[in-house]
Amino acid sequence: MELVATPQHPLFAARISGIDIRCPVSPAQCREIVRLMDRYAVCAIGHDGPPTNEEQIAFSVLLGPMDRGRSPKIEGTGIRIPHNEIVDQSNLDQDGVIYEEGDRRLLFKRANRLWHTDMSFRQVRATYSLLSAHVVPSAGGNTEFVDMRAVYDALPESTRSRLDGLVAEHSYWYSRSLGGGPAPTDAERASRPPARHALVHVCPGSGRKSLYIASHISGIVGWREDEACALIDELMAFATQPRFIYSHDWRVGDVVIWDNLATIHRATPFDDTRYRRDMRRTTCRERLVHS
Ligand SMILES: [Fe+2]
Q1: Cα-to-centroid distance, 179 and ligand 1 (Å)
Q2: pLDDT in tens, 181-196
Q3: How far is the CA of 204 from the centre of ligand 1 (A)?
Q4: Which distant-in-sequence residues (6+ apart) come within 8 Å of 25 by Cβ?
Q5: In terms of Cα–Cα distance, which of 225, 114, 214 is closest to 171?
Q6: CA distances (Å), 56 to each of 11, 62, 97, 158, 281, in order?
Q7: Does the residue 291 lie in any domain?
Q8: Which CATH number belongs to the domain containing residue 217 in this structure?
Q9: If we measure between CA atoms, which residue out of 7, 17, 86, 13 comes closest to residue 45?
Q10: How many structural domains comprise the chain?
Q11: Range of the domain at 25
């Protein structure tokens, strides 16, 4: 069956039909998905039910070296999903019970409401993220995306030339504190040291230049902190104008793939101490990392 892409936004993002990731996917279908990802950067594939953890992992591994490192736990908590490849993006504890207001895990997760790209705080960056929807709230909880290649194309030439050669430092804990989370413990801080990346890079698949910024950015190498903050704030304000944003309204069974090297995204609020939201992420990386 042929894959068909239906664009969801004038600049990027498509809904893909003609494939079920819960079934074995052929190499030709895989190549087609990569081609569509290079074009659209965000691809949503609908199903009549979510993939199992095993099915999601089996599909993700076809798209690149997978992140298999168990995300460092927030101290004193248990694990709901026993697969190292899956990041639990729900608001549920190890027993499937909704976090209570004030729970450190919930406070840290709310930082996902800041614009970011996944794992930019790692030196070996994330390429694709795949998020599956198992339970969605009746209202709210969309994920918003921006194509940073389109943003780069739209930047004034004077701004683009200011970005040449700049390198930013990305810190997981910086964005957690911006998001209102509690201070990390020393062990938590040591578990995720910062990483450095060019502010502008060329996406390998499309060959297009992209702006690589995120709320994880804690500074620009060689710059004063206030000047770095001002530049990142200016770029983020430009990038997140409504004309650039695609908002994905989740349906149970959706699997959305996004290219972290070409996009930024954020979670939008919902009543997270009342409604369940069960989302599961797998992540591909630039190269295999043994952790
Ligand atoms: Fe994310």
Answers
A1: 13
A2: 788 888 888 888 899 9
A3: 21
A4: 19, 33, 59, 62
A5: 214
A6: 28, 10, 23, 43, 9
A7: no
A8: 3.60.130.10
A9: 17
A10: 1
A11: 4-285
Q: What pLDDT, on a 0 to 100 scale, did the predictor assign at position 74?
A: 62
Tell me how far apart the alpha carbons of residues 141 and 167 are, in angstroms, rounded to a whole number.
32
Q: Is residue 13 part of a domain?
A: yes
Give the helix/strand (H/E) hosting 109: helix 104-109
- To which H or E segment does residue 33 belong? helix 27-40
Does the reported pTM lie above 0.90?
Answer: yes
> How is residue 1 written in tokens?
């069956």
User: What is the whole-number distance in angstroms between the Cα of residue 266 and the centre of ligand 1?
Assistant: 6
Task: Measure 225 CA to ligand 1 centroid, in angstroms.
Answer: 25
Short-list 272, 268, 251, CA closest to 92? 272
Q: Quick check: is 290 in a domain?
A: no
Q: What angle do CA 180, 183, 186 make, to 5 degrees?
A: 155
What is the DSSP pairing of strand 87-88 with strand 245-248?
Answer: unpaired
Phi, psi of 91 (to 5 degrees): -110, 35
pLDDT above 70 coverage of the chain, percent: 97
* Ligand 1: centre distance to CA 116 (Å): 6
The pLDDT, as a whole number, for residue 291 is 58
Asked whether 94 and 100 are in contact (CB, 8 A), the reply is no
